[in-house]
Design brief:
This protein has 501 residues and is of the alpha/beta class. It folds into two domains: 277 residues, Aldehyde Dehydrogenase, Chain A, domain 1, CATH 3.40.605.10; 185 residues, Aldehyde Dehydrogenase, Chain A, domain 2, CATH 3.40.309. Helices cover 40% and strands 21% of the residues. It contains 18 helices and 22 strands. Helix 6 packs parallel to helix 7 and helix 15 runs parallel beside helix 16. The longest helix is centred in the first third of the chain and has 17 residues. The protein is globular and about 70 Å long. The model has no long low-confidence stretch (mean pLDDT 95).
Length: 501
């Protein structure tokens, strides 16, 4: 159902009620400058928010520390799990509001956001279940001595999250941190703070102690930098660009040896071998892998690597797939691709389109157009062919709907081409030949690689949200394990006890 004027009005009213950081169970709005917000679909005014400064971050840190050493830290694992499950239920009840906020703040199509946010509570439940199953290890048991390793919470976690998928970005940091027994301070993206603020308010409403989840709104160089460098912080988790990841790591190391988790940029290839071209349905999946969320996701497979003789077939196939991807008003349920999230992002993407036109041929894939208001921040899905090897378009993350089509001669050439980037986040391989798939996967330097033997295999398994699959980014894509039990353990610290009797 398309959100009507009343829904949108209620969403804007909800935004007006959330203008400032949420600390210690209440709004803190007496510091900082204000930032105005615009609707990416039409550039309409969405009100403003109060920006946090270093003092605001210090308040949030003090609240989180008191809570960790007090009410949250003293809870039994059973009670912590019970509160988190109640929180998950409350998130489910407010999924429609979270969806509306995402649509208004970053232009995500309402139907897409609704489908994703329907699973938001499950991220909390998945990590809450690990409270019962991850307890530590025994490393020696003899008559006179015994050794055990306890998994203890780190303390106060700082999370700096991006704007592209607001609800999921917060929960994928928040859920393992809280389940492991930490408290958390989340620095929301200043472009889309309201989903984070609503999640923080819901945590208080669900009965989580004041200070367990604090949310601050602020610019990266101010609030983000202060959070990362804070001497009382025990772990900083960052998702965003590689350049900012370097800045976060430097800030974290400047005051103490706090560990960092960094999931940074990507320039992910999808390598398609000759045998995969036999099924025409593949183009719909290749299109999705590159252009979902208008290309604004870190694992977008925006490099299509194909045999040299297959270029025209790839162009035709992608143009055919594009017919099913309508670009337009995010409130329209028929829309599959909305605008870019901000005016600044639109300018950045247009800059890459200009570079692409100077270096190769840019081909608009011809997605059908819905209501695209002239003031909206729209960019149309396109591919670029004929690029010289090693061009900036093949190496730099665009974070928009632009795919490079790159040609290889054999498997070794495909491997060299796939690795010719500073990033190593993700990749995919399409072939029914297990020997070829294995060789590619073993030699491509990326943290997570999917090998698809067929379109049916890809469709039957579906995507992972990050709660089961775990990996560590490589090269400039970051460091530290995300996802699964190992990702949960990253929010704990091992302590060994050795009993001698």
């Amino acid at each position: 159902m398309k959100p009507n004027r009343a829904d949108i009005s209620s969403g804007i009213a909800l935004m007006s009620a959330m203008r400032s950081s949420w600390i210690d169970g209440r709004a803190v709005d007496d510091v900082g400058e204000v930032m105005s917000h615009r609707n990416p679909a039409n550039d309409a005014d969405l009100g403003d928010t109060v920006m946090a400064d270093a003092r605001t971050v210090d308040l949030a840190m003090s609240s989180a520390r008191r809570c960790f050493e007090g009410s949250w830290g003293s809870l039994s694992p059973y009670d912590r799990k019970k509160l988190l499950l109640g929180y998950a239920d409350l998130i489910d009840e407010h999924a429609a509001e979270l969806t509306l906020l995402e649509m208004l703040e970053v232009g995500r199509p309402s139907s897409d956001a609704a489908a994703l946010n329907a699973a938001a509570g499950d991220i909390i439940r998945t990590y809450a279940a690990k409270i019962d199953t991850v307890n530590g290890d025994m490393f020696r048991s003899e008559e006179r001595r015994m050794g055990v390793v306890l998994r203890r919470p780190r303390g106060v976690v700082g999370a700096i999250v991006p704007w592209n998928v607001p609800v999921m970005n917060v929960l994928l940091r928040l859920a393992p941190a809280l389940a492991a027994g930490n408290t958390i301070v989340v620095k929301a993206s200043e472009l889309c703070p309201r989903t984070t603020l609503l999640l923080a308010r819901l945590a208080s409403e669900a009965g989580l102690p004041n200070g367990a989840f604090n949310a601050v709104i602020g610019a990266g160089p101010v609030a983000g930098a202060r959070l990362a460098e804070h001497p009382d912080l025990n772990l900083v988790a960052f998702t965003g660009s590689s350049a900012t990841g370097h800045a976060v790591a430097r800030a974290a190391a400047s005051t103490n040896f706090k560990p960092v988790l960094l999931e940074c940029g990507g320039k992910s290839p999808q390598v398609v071998l000759d045998d995969a071209f036999e099924d025409e349905r593949i183009w719909a999946l290749l299109f999705f892998s590159a252009f979902w969320n208008t290309g604004q996701w870190c694992v977008a497979k925006t490099r299509l690597l194909i045999p040299r003789a297959r270029e025209q077939q790839a162009i035709d196939g992608l143009m055919s797939a594009a017919r099913e991807w309508r670009v337009g008003d995010p409130a329209d349920p028929a829309t599959r691709l909305g605008p870019l999230a901000s005016r600044g992002q639109l300018a950045r993407v247009r800059g890459y389109y200009a570079k692409a036109g100077a270096l190769g041929e840019v081909i608009n894939l011809g997605c059908p157009r819905g209501d695209m208001q002239g003031d909206g921040y729209y960019a149309l899905p396109s591919i670029v062919t004929g690029l010289p090897r090693g061009s900036v378009l093949q190496k730099e993350e665009v974070f928009g709907p632009l795919m490079t089509v790159e040609l290889f001669d054999d498997l070794d050439d495909a491997i060299a081409l796939a690795n010719d980037t500073e990033f190593g986040l993700s990749a995919s391989v399409w072939t029914a030949r297990s020997d070829h798939g294995y060789k590619l996967a073993r030699n491509i330097r990326a943290g997570g690689i999917s090998i698809f033997s067929s379109v049916d295999a890809a469709r039957s398994t579906g995507p992972e949200l990050g709660t089961a699959r775990y990996f560590e980014p490589q090269k400039e894509s970051g460091l530290g394990i995300d996802g699964g039990e190992h990702g949960y353990l990253a929010y704990t610290t091992p302590q060994s006890l050795y009993f001698h009797n």
